[in-house]
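Q: Convert this sequence to structure tokens.
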Amino acid sequence: MQYSIKILKIVPILIFSGVLILTSCNIFHKTVKSPESEISEKTWLEYNNFLVEGNKQKMLGNADECALLYQNCIKLNPENPVPYFELANLYLSQGDWVKALKFSEQSVRLEPKNMWYKIQLANIYQKNGKLMKSAAIFKELIRQYPDRADFYYNLSSLYSAVGKTKEAIKILNVYEKKFGVTEPVSLEKERLYNLLGRTDKSLAEIENLVKAFPKEARYYGILAETYAGNQKFDKALETYKKLLEIDRNNGLVHLSLADFYRVTNDIEKSFDELKLAFASQDVDVDLKVRMLMNFINYTETDEDLNKKAYGLLEILIKAHPEDPKVHTMYADYLIKDKKYAEARDELRFVVKTTKDKYMIWEQLLFLESQLSDYKNLLEESKEALDIFPIQPSAYLFNGLASYELKDYNACIDVLKKGVALVVDDPSLKQQFYTYLGEAYYKNKQYKESDDAFDKLLKLDPNNVVILNNYSYYLSLRSDSLLKAERMIRRVIDLEPNNPTYLDTYAWVLYKLNKLDEAKKYMEQALEKGSAKSAVLVEHYGDIIYKLGDTEKALSQWKKAIELGKGSEFLEQKIKERKLIE
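A:
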């Protein structure tokens, strides 16, 4: 018998995150004669020409020519720091820290008061892992240029990097005395105090930041989160209330409060704040979607959470009615709850605005197949194929729709195109061959049908559904019955208690005229739950008739009539009291 197929992160100050490249500008250095060396005008002109040409080749990206020209400058005028500086920059850009260091040290030796040369050398020391040497240079630079705030940052960061946390804090304290309280320094000091385990000092830094900028709502948020992180929930709540006085309608504030109430286990208040955050345009839609994605794993076992998630989704759609991500998220929830029709509506909206996402199309086509809406599946899969002509699964869905609509020629045509596109996906290829085999069979193209099933069984030799169907089709045609018997025998070995498969086995045995065995397996099929199947009961009657018991066969055929639809010959068998084949 045939079987059916069916929010704010605090980070340390970074030091020289990229390669510091200083160019040869007249502001930084001038190509003048070195007072320590006397060279002729001719040599000086030659030196200058090499330097200008070196700069030109550097601009053109010709590193080898550039390096050679700068080396010529050094040969002509070894006491001038400029070519050393330029060579250090060149090797720095190439990641050759060792060569860069050699030339940078020379430029600083020749002109020790030049700020840019020193910055370059400090950077290269860091690249070579000589952090304390870099720190020593920044200490000198601070003495020379006490109004350069970045030098304090860099020195503090270097101390922090080598574990000199207290020294790093001292430098930042000097900075604050000179420049006042600033966000980067306060947050860095908070981090450093946390490293020392001084939570009191850490909190004090954020409190000082709030005092310095009493109208800056964001700092209250940082302070409240810091209080909460240190289990000071009363102070955290008090700070949040102050924050709401300053900026009541800020969605990010409500988001922080939602997290606060979650941590303090006040779930209802947490969701109240979350609803306000989801309604706000201040909170990025992607963040809202990510939060709901985190919920989806828990909503299957928590009905209350599931209801809350749907409430947030409704708010989200009102806040962002045209955003396809929101409708996609909503569809995911609906699919989880098997609300396929509603999910399909959401995805139809998405594909109208976001046509280039095949995963969305594939999900839409899947929903159409789940809803057995084959007319829409046919039309939408055609549209998907126009946009994605090399996606095999679009061909499969289109073929499925044509098959179910009984347009077997169209089904075969599209499946043949699609299966040729399948690469390294045996499972998908099996589905193509399944429907090709079925469509060819319905179209009475039996050789092609057999070929498709044979290809499928090479990929999956133990596919019991196909082994059963293929065997049954051969038995109906009385074709290759020994092959049919081998296939259905394998099925029975794999699933000995399935009444559908037992029926097919009995029918193949019947076709081979092994009637006693056929009767045995058909009775097993009826015992295991198929006594209410008109087809199986009719088959049993046929076997009994062949064994010579006409009256019992007649009673089985009459029983099949009562159970429902049998074969097209069933009534004739009863009327003529004989087997009709």
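The chain has a mean pLDDT of 89.
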